[in-house]
Amino acid sequence: MGYNRRSFIQYASLAAGGSLVGLRPFGALNALAQTAPVSGYKALVCVFLFGGNDANNTLVPTDTVGYNNYTALRGPLALPQSQLIQLASLPQYGLHGSLPEIAQLVDSGAAALVANVGTLVAPTTRANVSSQLNLPSNLFSHSDQQLQWQNAAQSSATPTGWAGRMSDLLGSSFNPSASIPMITSVAGDTLFCDGQSTTPLAVSPGNLSGVSCGEGAAECGVRQAMAQSFLGFASGLNLVQADNTISQNAARYASVLTQAVSSMAPLATVFPANNPFATQLQQIAQLMQVRSSFGVNRQIFFAGVGNFDTHADQSAQQSLLLAQVSSAMSAFYQATQELGIANEVTTFTMSDFSRTFQPNSNNGSDHGWGSHHIVLGGAVRGAKLYGTYPTLALGGPDDFDVNGRWIPSTSTVQYAATLASWFGVSAAQLKTIFPSLGAFSSANLGFV
Fold it and tell me: pTM score, two decimals?
């Protein structure tokens, strides 16, 4: 293995979110733990559907009255009933035809669906909406709603994510001897992962081995030594020194991760080919496989797939993306079974928002609000629909206006708090991580 010149430059100037393993500063690397207790291990895996997945075509009513109403209002976006996958466990509903693996997981009890979840400041009705009281900031904005899902604070200005805040509170008690951060992103640097006192690890899927060089061992050694001397040079400039620290940590962690993963036999589970999202989940599974090497009892992962922003020609684009999600999540669940940790890993979806029930003039849909989500894992109380499915009526009791932007019946805060409680967050800590949770009647939706 060697360095080519381009890779050498990348190695020497590596920064957060870079092409290898991007580390934001969080202190020196601890010694690689020789042994670590594996009892009590738990992991959360967030799957973010970037762009706003159309949940109206993800979970569809299939009873006669419900389906006829659906087709009448959805127009050209309505899916033929023959293309829906009827759920045996939920006889009134069907899933999009591109979700066969998810349908099987729901019916087998390994997955559940949570209806009409969205950003809320407090329980909200159509009357609240008309008076503009207690609404989240900048509804229907991609960037703002992504941030509010990720920070569970209903303001895009909040600088930490709810996973990051969990890491702040739980890191020292659950992972006291860990050699890597509690949180790893395989989809870049995102607010979800950011804490006040802790920061995440960012990994480029499939590239743990770092850089390579084709110039021979001696030449590669000289180049690596030169790079390290640059990074260790005391320039006296704060920004340069900070960047050098990031780069040095990145190099160390690349080595730690590579060493651990390369020491294990490859997983037998086959992940779908030509599916970038599946590559992300495969990388997460590989890191879970070597969790004992890192001394971690709790881990959080962030993955992402998109673009679900289907303002035009929605049917083909959503079908392709949902097929990637379904096959990848199924393979990932199989991998957790292979590793014997299916009951200790809970995977869940998030998205900017759903989309309008009423189609636009381009055979697409526009930005909505409340959305349906998937929760997967051995600890999930599956084969059920949690929350309240909206009344599919334009201008009806659950509509923000007249286009079918469903007012959420369940808050992102409740959704996140349920997952956090399973992960090990105490009732007292929930109030710190989710300051607005007290505005809602239930802090636990019961799906896990």
Answer: 0.86
